[in-house]
Write a structure and sequence with these properties.
The chain has helices at residues 2-21, 33-44, 52-59, 63-75, 97-110, 112-137, and strands spanning 79-83, 91-95. It is mostly helical.
């Protein structure tokens, strides 16, 4: 019993140490972290646009949450919508010039802490870390 609790304490301390390292903190930008994450998701997508449902799936959030954020970024001029030529019910989201300029301006610094960790771990350990973190998060919210 004591050994199991010692493991639990060690895990707790290590996870708290990650937070203390500042890996979750980003420099202040004019847009929120949620807005920036959405812009990066569009930037990572195909050049001719990405469906909002694909962004929601990739980020593991609801489509209404993406739509709400997307609408404000369209209104602010960072994103634009394009109808599918094959099916007018399908929309694609693209970065505007303003959106591309914004992402290009922050792309080197925004994920720099995460990139430092990835570089330090290397490809193999990064893949292991991703696998383990996905396994942990698959538990859902813990009580």
């Amino acid at each position: 019993m004591k050994k199991e609790l010692m493991k639990a304490q060690t895990l707790e301390r290590l996870l708290l140490d990650l937070r203390k390292m500042g890996v979750y903190k980003h420099k202040k930008h004019e847009l929120s972290n949620a807005d920036i994450t959405l812009l990066f998701s569009v930037w990572f997508g195909p050049e001719d646009g990405i469906k909002p449902s694909e962004i929601a799936q990739r980020l593991e959030v609801t489509l209404p949450a993406i739509t709400h954020k997307m609408n404000s970024l369209v209104d602010e001029g960072y994103l634009t919508r394009r109808e599918s030529e094959k099916d007018q019910r399908v929309n694609y989201v693209l970065l505007t010039e303003k959106g591309r300029n914004y992402i290009n301006a922050i792309s080197d610094s925004y994920y720099s802490c995460m990139q430092t960790i990835i570089d330090h771990l290397g490809e193999r350990d990064t893949a292991v870390l991703f696998r383990i973190l996905r396994k942990i998060t698959s538990l859902g919210k813990l009580k």
